[in-house]
Design brief:
The chain is of the alpha/beta class and about 290 residues long. It contains twelve helices and nine strands. The chain is globular and about 45 Å long. About 5% of the residues have low confidence.
């Protein structure tokens, strides 16, 4: 489907009954909404209405050229515009990688719109900022973000030799047909530059607040981008009911590497918080096996 907003037209994948409980899925770099295809199928089968848009820059109809047009505030505005166009006054929000960052910021700024929050891999931005100041391990993991601000050198390196460098980011954990689809998508003129502009947009234009809505955070011990310091510190930034799931020995690409595990956790979270009248414990930490 396509979703028309004041910013432009977003491409999206949708499934499930039109009157189902709405769930918005936000992908990260270097993927598209199809990164969620296993979650889309599972949620739709349970009666949820699921929409997974290709975000700003990934949708050709919303691809501004300036890096500053990819500021986090504008990405949050896209979420609001998309859900308003869909007629969703409230919705469950799920994000991975950069989509996770957008999800954190959206839930912080608009708790009245977000019924529940689920974030995969990406720690709360406040926890990540603190780790970048104090934790050498996380600083080392995040150095690539500085390197990728080079332009057009980064695009040239990533797309050379049949996008060999771009493919290595998936570390063999994403199905080959999915990786091929992402590479084709980002090899089109202007697409990779738009995706990298998320890294080049500058610092957030505001301060993020603690999260009030019921939150599930799923992190894996094999994640090369986000280490244990910000992952374990994320709970300090959530004031509502909070569940922290640690998945041992999985990579950054949880939605595609371990879809059944993530689907079970996500569906459990949504069922536990079907309304705002909840009495769940604030924090539960597990290893993903319960």
């Amino acid at each position: 489907m396509t979703i028309s907003t004041a910013a432009g037209v977003f491409d999206a994948v949708a499934a499930g009954p039109a009157d189902g409980r709405p769930v918005l899925l936000l992908h990260g770099f270097p993927q598209t909404g199809l990164a969620w295809r296993r979650q889309i199928a599972a949620l739709a089968a349970e009666g949820y209405r699921v929409v997974a848009p290709d975000q700003r820059g990934y949708s050709p109809g919303v691809r501004p050229e300036r890096p500053e047009d990819y500021r986090i505030g504008l990405l949050v505005e896209d979420v609001l515009a998309i859900t308003e166009e869909l007629g969703w006054p409230a919705f469950d929000l799920v994000g991975h990688d950069w989509g996770g960052a957008v999800a954190w910021w959206t839930a912080s700024a608009h708790p009245g719109r977000v019924r529940t929050l689920t974030v995969v891999s990406t720690p709360h931005p406040g926890a990540l900022a603190e780790a970048l100041r104090t934790d050498e391990d996380q600083r080392a993991r995040s150095r690539y973000m500085i390197d990728w601000r080079e332009t057009p050198a980064t695009e040239d390196r990533m797309l050379a030799d049949d996008a060999g460098l771009l493919r290595t980011l998936f570390a063999g954990k994403v199905p080959r047909d999915s990786a091929d689809a992402y590479v084709r998508h980002l090899s089109r003129p202007g697409a990779l530059t738009a995706a990298l502009n998320w890294y080049r947009s500058g610092r957030p234009d505001g301060t993020i607040r603690p999260i009030e809505v019921p939150t599930l955070y799923v992190w894996s011990t094999g994640d090369t981008a986000f280490g244990p310091a910000p992952a374990k510190d994320t709970g300090r930034w959530v004031e509502g009911p909070y569940r922290f799931e640690i998945l041992p020995d999985l990579s950054h690409w949880i939605p595609e590497e371990a879809p059944e595990t993530l689907n079970r956790l996500l569906l459990g979270h949504l069922r536990a918080h079907g309304s705002r009248n909840h009495h769940a414990p604030r924090t539960v930490e597990t290893d993903g096996s319960d």
